[in-house]
Amino acid sequence: MIENLVENGITATVLICDDDPTYLLLMEETLSSDNLNVLTAKNGVEALQAYLKHEPSIVLLDVQMPMLNGFEVCAEIRKHPKGKDTPILMVTGADDILSIESAYKHGATDFLPKPIRWPIVAHRVRYMLKGSETFNSLKESEMKMRQLAYFDSLTGLPNRQKFDESLEESIWFAAKEQKSVCIMYIDLDNFKRINDTLGHEFGDRVLKKIGEKISKFLKTDTVVIEALNNTAQAEVSRLGGDEFMILLNNMPNKNDVKAIAKSLVSCISELVSLDGYEVALTPSIGIAMFPKDGKSVTELKKHADVAMYHAKSMGRSGYRFYSESLNENAMKFLKIEGCLRNALANNEFTLHFQPQVCLKTNEIISVEALLRWTSPEIGVVKPSDFIPIAEDSGLINDIGEWVMRGACQQAKKWADAGIENFRVSVNLSSIQFKRASLLTMIKNALHDNDLPAELLEVEITESAIMNDIDQNIVRLNQIRDMGVAISIDDFGTGYSSLSYLKKFPIHTLKIDRAFIINIDTDADDAAIVEAIIALASTLKLNVVAEGVETKEQLKVLTKFNCDVIQGFYFSKAVSAEDITALMQHPLDKSLF
Ligand code: C2E
Ligand code: MG
Ligand code: MG
User: Fold this and answer.
1) Same domain, 350 and 315
2) What pTM was estimated for this model as a whole?
């Protein structure tokens, strides 16, 4: 029978098992004096029962016992979930080397040779308990470290490290069982805007909510439940910033993945309410599948990333599957970046100018300077392909300065040639706009070319001035105070909040081509453009309609009293010489 023993001041429980009652009694006597709760068992079966019932901190096992011997008990304890780390001391014959070896083989922690030297037994047990305590606290801190190392502290979701390891494991199983694995790379569109306008702390709480939203979606959304069909599993991790990753195991069917992605886009796009704010966020999702799109963690992640960027470039808020052709795009991107580094030094850029025609006087009154790049290696590259890369790499600052100087130099030539009040417009990237050196850069370009500031205009996109509005107003005022005109480019595509326009010291609105394309066929577009023109007139701003290609479009704009037209209908961007030639003669009347 098992006997419960001394209770006072007890810190640990020891289980001793021996079929020799004398040993058992002596052992019990020796140990109980030492603040230990001692349990005894007189055979292997009892020992095991006692272990399961009391989960003692340490076990002493005799080897030779009827029914279950000490080795067998030891091995059984080790199988128990909590028995893995319990110290087990085997009581063996001192010179019985085979037994000692066997004891270790069965998982014993140490051995105690018989005949037992009683005075040291208690010390030995205490020593082992101490070791075990240290081990347990180490294990605990390891668990804590694991939590820190594998889980994101903000959202509590698995982090990048954990995701990588889970994906590695999934790939290993999938390869063995010929199953597929799918990963979805989620990036929140324009998340920076939330941090910039409402602060990082608010941004963090939004991210936490989004993490909860995705977790809940994976557990409860009917589309997901149906697609997973009890066999597949889904888990979301946060990679950092506004990036999340979903891992789907056992997903053989692309249509199911598609259904989940579609549903996920609408789930994330639902408004998030926080502190009285309604935050609207959309995700761009890139999807890659094992084994089709990659065979390793790195390859799959890279391809999901490529697909995600593609989703973004397709207009955000959507999902894209990876395909080889996307990778070609990524290669093209890298190639452009490499070539762009030397383009300025190698003189590969030129400036073209596109006329802006006044509908009141039917004359070309100004031009927009547009950058052209012909790389000897890749050929002609469109600004929409290389400007974002130049912005990402910081090259835009030097390139932008080159454009500014070139445009001022050309404007001065036209002024000197007697073309009066002929203004040149230069695009400023948001990166340039934020730079402290911007004003000096513009001043120097004007000064070095002896160009009056009134003959220069800068174009800034709506989105570039929408962050840190107060600071941007200061900056725009500085530009205006120099005498340089300011126009808002691609107007209508950004915030579409018109109220702030009053606060900005601007001269011109350039209505984006997107509204002009169907202006003669789409009543909504026509109404928007008419409203923008009316608003601009109230605010005493000039309006330029961009991207006019047909006479029909021109007619509608004339009816709306639009001031100025820019578009292929009159001319593409052409060389400075071609502009000079165009200025020699009035425009053909039949054009209007
Ligand atoms: P943007 O400033 O809005 O320039 C107008 C773009 O629309 C130009 O494209 C122009 O060629 C094109 N466009 C003008 N009329 C028409 C038309 O009737 N139909 C069509 N389909 N397109 C028309 P481009 O030259 O390819 O430049 C694209 C964008 O690249 C520019 O848009 C501007 O944001 C940027 N960019 C160009 N040059 C520079 C530069 O020197 N610095 C910076 N930061 N950005 C530049
Ligand atoms: Mg422009
Ligand atoms: Mg534009």
Assistant:
1) no
2) 0.58
